[in-house]
């Protein structure tokens, strides 16, 4: 309870000259705040419309088409606020250390973004999966910093004529 009090409150000298007052402070980051005194590692997180308090488990398994027997190759438990894309480098490191590094890895949208695809290529792992769809819209950029898209190019193809 003392830890929760320290995270949620602070004491300040009272305005009447001597009595201490308890002031509710602005909440710390979700990854630092204790969500329940029964499990100090548990954190609140939203998954869609659902609110969950607990930890997140990351499980990596083999999926060889030619082998009917599949194996769990890595397991890790983290605070529920840990993003899959942030855990992926650690997963790759553990797989490398256990000599289980795959040539290709198939992951859900929480793991796949431009940076994780590039980092995986650097580790000689082909990362595949759906994109999260949370990239910035073109409208969010100023004109001078906006990434190029197909409308920025003009393609002209000369017709090949036989004479």
What shape does the CA trace take? Answer: flat
- Strand residues, percent: 25-35%
Weakly predicted, low-confidence segments: none
- Strand neighbour order, sheet with most strands: 3-4-5
The number of helical runs is 3
- As a whole number of angstroms, the C-alpha radius of gyration is 25 Å
Summarize the entry for a quick read.
With 163 residues, the protein is an alpha+beta fold.
Describe the 3D structure:
The chain is an alpha+beta fold and 163 residues long. 18% of the residues lie in helices and 25% in strands. It has a domain at 63-152. The longest helix has 14 residues, at 84-97. Strand 1 (9-13) and strand 2 form a beta hairpin. The strands form three sheets. Strands 3-4-5 form a three-stranded antiparallel beta sheet, with helices on one face. The protein has a two-stranded antiparallel ribbon with strand order 1-2. Strands 6-7 form a two-stranded parallel sheet. It comes from Candidatus Scalindua brodae. This is Transposase IS4-like domain-containing protein.
């Amino acid at each position: 309870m003392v830890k929760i009090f320290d995270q949620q409150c602070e004491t300040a000298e009272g305005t009447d000259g001597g009595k201490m007052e308890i002031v509710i402070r602005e909440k710390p980051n979700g990854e630092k705040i204790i969500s329940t005194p029964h499990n100090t590692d548990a954190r609140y997180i939203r998954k869609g419309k659902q609110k969950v308090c607990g930890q997140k488990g990351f499980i990596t398994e083999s999926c060889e088409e030619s082998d009917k027997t599949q194996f769990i190759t890595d397991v890790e438990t983290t605070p529920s606020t840990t993003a899959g894309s942030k855990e992926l480098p650690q997963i790759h490191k553990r797989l490398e250390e256990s000599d289980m590094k795959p040539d290709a890895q198939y992951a859900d949208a929480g793991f796949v973004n431009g940076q994780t695809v590039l980092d995986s290529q650097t580790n000689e792992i082909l990362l595949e999966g759906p994109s999260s769809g949370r990239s910035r819209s073109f409208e969010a950029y100023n004109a001078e910093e906006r990434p190029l898209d197909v409308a920025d190019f003009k393609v002209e193809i000369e017709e090949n004529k036989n004479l």
